[in-house]
Amino acid sequence: MWHKVSDKEKEDIERQAKGIMDSFVGKLASVEGRLGGEAVVERDVCERAEDGGKCAEMSRKIMFENAPNFDEDFIIAEKGGW
After folding, report:
1. Which residues contact 64 (CB under 8 A, 6 or more apart)?
2. Most buried residue, 10, 41, 80, 82, by most Cβ within 10 Å?
């Protein structure tokens, strides 16, 4: 339920968020040390080749099959209902 957040609640949220981020950074630092450096992928071509729209049409078909409501080229969705 929505309620106005007090200054004390804001401070508590900020403190908790900082604690979460500090914990995450600490865990991430330990993972980076085990990887032995940056992961780099070298490629001759930086863009994928288009196949004439075959993937786009397949993705479009799947997208519309998963949509509960659609009208021709548009998915009908509730505005801001989440």
Report:
1. 70, 75
2. 10
- Nearby residues of 63 by Cβ (< 8 Å), 6 or more positions away: 75
Encode pLDDT of 24-75 as tens digits. 988 887 775 555 566 677 777 777 666 665 666 677 788 888 888 888 888 8
User: What pTM was estimated for this model as a whole?
Assistant: 0.37
Q: 58-75 burial, b if ≥16 CB within 10 A, otherwise e?
A: eeeeeeeeeeeeeeeeee
Give the range of the structural domain holding residue 16, as residue numbers without chain letter: 7-75
Q: Per the structure, how many domains does the chain have?
A: 1
C-alpha to C-alpha distance for 68 and 76, rounded to whole angstroms: 8
